[in-house]
Amino acid sequence: MEAIEVKDLRKVYGSTPAVAGVTFTVHAGEIFGIAGHNGAGKTTTVECLIGLRRPDGGSVRVLGEDPARRRRAVAQRIGVQLQESALPERMKVAEALRAYAAFYRAPADWRQVMERWGLGPLARQAYGDLSGGQKQRLMLALALVGDPEVVVLDELTTGLDPVARRETWRLVNDLRASGTTVVLVSHYFDETEALCDRLAILARGRVQATGTPAEIMAATGTGSLEEAYFALEGADR
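== ABC transporter ATP-binding protein ==
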């Protein structure tokens, strides 16, 4: 069974199609990218994947379930880190992990998650006192405290300095090594090129290409995924 199956997904806001017939599959145990610039339809696609929005057409299956109809059941099996995620400034790291673990029927041991992701020394630190890289590491740990089969990471490294960004990449690779399926949503094409086993490139609410980074670059005759994106976007105009 595929971890995720999206077929002809459509979502319209007023008269504007945000997603116009998106189709892709995510294999269990891989890092799958949803890549594209702002306005490409990435966020709407993710919101349909995790059950925050109901599609206007097509179908979505996550671990065999329809997230629009079975949102609570799906939520128990996935972890999500959204771009706008934030915590109260004075909430401490350990408090946040303990609180999130309480949302799940069978969570991981939040103390082990804290130690695994290098947050043990920061257990008593307030969220507002953390660096950007530490905040992102905590958000990743919170997405994992439910012991998910699939984790969705939306613009995980936005705003991070180069050192923190590379460290976050290492953590994502560690996730795959542990058997977790990762959906990585990003407008950074160097990031998806470095991390993803396969990806879907979106522009204007449509899938422009799917495949491995090497396959997409070969098909467009380009030397990077960013170059491939602009070649595909230009061809679609």
